[in-house]
Amino acid sequence: RRRRRASTMADPDPPSEAGSCLILGAEADGVGPSVLLTCAGSQRQYLFGAAEGFSRLALECRARPTAKLRAVFLSSFRPRASGGLGGLLLRLCADGHKSVCLAGPPGIGTHVEALRDFVRFRHPEVTSLRLVPPGIQNASSRDVFAPDDTRACDAAAESYQDDTVMVFPLFAPRVGEGEDLETCRLCAAVDDASAADEDDASASDEDEDESNETSSASVSCEAEALERLVEPPTKRSKRTKTAPSGAKEKEEENALDLEQRRDVLGYACAIRLNKRYLSTTFLVLDCADDSEAAAAAANATARCCLFGEKKNPNHPRACAAFHLTRRDVASRPAYDAVRRRAVGVAEEEGDASAAKKQNERNAKKNEETSTLHVDCSVAGEVGFRAGARVLARLHAVDPETFPLSPPLRAPYRAPETREDGTNASSALRRDGVRSAEGSLCATVCLFRGGSCSMDQRSNRCEELDVDAVVASALSRLRVANEEDATEETKDTPPHSSGASSAPSLLFLGTGSAEPSKYRGSSGVLVKLPGLGGTTAPGTGTGPGGDGGYALLDCGEGVAGATRRFLGDDEGVRVLDELKFVFITHHHPDHMAGLLGVLAARSKRAPPLPVLGPSATLRWLRRAVEVGAVGEGPKGTWTKSARDVDDGVARLAAFTRTASLYARENGGGGPFW
Question: Which among 64, 27, 562 is positioned nearest to 324, based on CA atoms?
């Protein structure tokens, strides 16, 4: 009896919470959304997305990743998804982080190697994991990826798995996709793990005489099952059966199709309960356009997680779906197919009665689906609130020199949260689909069995009230002026705001490469004088017209700072009117934000003249090669040198600064 009581006390019921997801993103500051998963029990962390400005925002919200951060998952290499990777590595280096895995689509090795060229960090130890579609090399033995990327990657696999989580990338299907993407990857992984577990259990019941032989067979079977899940595709191809001679032509056609580049639409993540069972699952989706939204809605793994179409009892439905997609894409009708089942198919075929019944069934199924859809891109969300309060105090002193943009005047405020996890302002909409706005520091608690709850208040920072800060600063100035007023100060003429041809300066950032709470990385915006006359700053009026703008240095977050200080429309206009960008030297606090500036400019803007060291050109070439800037990479996984050069020329007109200060011309200087 005492032994039973002691056993009961030693093995209490485990907590029902499987983990929590923290949302970090501030659209008014130009910081794209990211999701930080913290697993219950082990407290291991996994980050989905590393947007430009992420590390500074995490410091602001006191939510920076801990020493237990295991992996970072990137859906693309654009600044909105991975522009803050360099700052994150520097932040982890300062915190003494030991190691981290960077997982992403093909090109991750090239991207990380390009970062190492100018982001100098001794630790953490970085492992580049290239995630590839299933069966990418089953039909061909040759490597379809860029040789440089293959050399730079530390490993390649179809998924990321450890003893805490399983993460599967959601790839866009190719034309004529086979069985690999028609099967839920999570269900297949659970079935393989269950088969391996059953083999181990049966092996343990064998007689002692046969134990050695059976044990070795079961171990090899288990190793093979795990190898199928995480090994590089080059090893999987060795176990592929030889195709019949009659299927040789078809195999060659499939090999050409497999070489077609496909983008990552997001990730399906499952938190393990043990080797055989899953505790809970959730989705992270990041679609660039309507075609990717349609591909995500048709993905078998996403459908199984959202609607349970495969009905595997060991695979619970996704309790939450985090939409990192831009608001302009997520608000389109094409994106609705991701949130709910498609309706109206029979009506298109001419059968109105069948269409009505099908729509009713789909609407009922949508109401029964418990998945919480979290829109992580929130308009007007201000994240750098400490800097905004400093700017508000400066605005009280001199409103003309320190103006306040509209987002700072009317920032987003999180609504109250209902008990079911939805917002009070938007409870159930779109045929009963649960949805909520994932504001800054919103926390979604994931429970075992497929349920979740959302809290938007507990971890959220103090709300920003710019008018109150300005009023408080004005009252203090008024008291100080009354105490220290003299005849000289009273007779001093007020500050003149007349038109002037002198250039004006706007310091977008004065900090170092390591992210800081109060200071962004280096960047100075210079308003050039108009030619032939005077010009009112920022108006473009006067006899000489507007002289445009120049940007001196471009650290991480400069594009977001332009939006924060000038507003969305004015910020885009200023970036489009840049005459040149001058990069002084190849340190991350002076050039890491160049891709963000190029991505923020409109498509009609001409190529941007860039003056900088040769490392800047190497950075641009690698960025175009992996599709971080410019038009989305189409065609194969590889890009020729000519295509890369053409892509750089469409974005920027580069001039090496060493040519401007050549020693043979009597110059010199700190350029190379």
Answer: 27
d(CA 588, CA 596) in angstroms, rounded, equals 13
What would the pLDDT profile of 526-577 be if each residue is shown by its tens digit? 988 865 444 444 444 333 346 789 999 999 999 999 988 888 888 899 999 9
**Among 24, 20, 25, 49, which residue's Cα sits nearest to residue 37?**
20
Q: Which amino acid is it at 254?
A: N
Residue 570 in tokens: 């004015």
Helix (H/G/I), strand (E/B), else coil: 590: helix
| Element of type H or E holding 446 | strand 443-447
Neighbour count for residue 380 (Cβ, 10 Å): 16
The length of the chain, given as a count of residues? 672
Cβ atoms of 518 and 57 within 8 Å: the answer is no
Tell which residue, 515, 507, 447, has the closest CA to residue 24. 515
DSSP per residue over 17-39, as a string?
EEEEEEEEEEGGGTEEEEEEEEE
User: Is residue 295 predicted with pLDDT exceeding 50?
Assistant: yes
Tokens of 246: 């009659």
The predicted model scores a pTM of: 0.81
Cβ-based neighbour number of residue 521 at 10 Å? 31
Alpha-carbon distance of 104 to 130, in angstroms, equals 6
Q: And the tokens for 244?
A: 């019949």
Q: How confident is the model over 49-89, as pLDDT tens digits?
A: 999 999 999 999 999 899 999 999 999 999 999 999 999 99
Cβ-Cβ contacts under 8 Å for 659 (sequence gap 6 or more): none
**Torsion sign over Cα 382, 388, 392, 398:** negative
Say if residue 448 is exposed, middle or buried (CB neighbours under 10 Å; 0-12, 13-18, 19+).
buried
Instruction: Give how far Cα 335 sits from Cα of 34, 206, 342, 364, 471, Å.
Output: 20, 54, 11, 20, 44
Q: Which residues contact 63 (CB under 8 A, 6 or more apart)?
A: 22, 24, 36, 441, 459
- Please name the amino acid found at residue 504: S
Tokens of 34: 């990211």
Retrieve residue 87's tokens.
């700052």
Q: For residues 559 and 37, give the distance between their C-alpha atoms in angstroms, rounded to a whole number.
A: 27
* CA distance between the termini of the chain: 80
Tell me the pairing of strands 608-612 and 652-656. parallel
Give the position of tokens 């520097």.
90
Q: Which residues contact 103 (CB under 8 A, 6 or more apart)?
A: 71, 72, 73, 74, 129, 130, 131, 160, 167
The C-alpha atoms of residue 133 and residue 168 are separated, in whole angstroms, by: 10
Phi/psi region, residue 607 (left: phi>0; alpha: psi -120 to 50; beta: rest), is beta
Rounded CA separation 615/215 (Å):
55
DSSP state of 665: G
pLDDT tens by residue, 263-277 = 789 999 999 888 778
* Omega of the bond leading into 399 within 30 degrees of 0 (cis): no
Q: Is 164 left (phi over 0), alpha (psi -120 to 50) or beta?
A: alpha
Please provide the average confidence, as pLDDT, over all residues in the chain. 76
Question: What is the model's pLDDT at position 2?
Answer: 42
Distance between CA atoms of 88 and 78, rounded to whole angstroms?
15
User: What are the CA-CA distances from residue 634 to residues 84, 121, 631, 663 (Å)?
Assistant: 25, 33, 9, 43
Neighbours of 611 (CB within 10 A): 18
| Residue 341 near residue 307 (C-beta atoms within 8 A) | yes
Nearest-10 crossing angle of helices 300-307, 185-204:
80
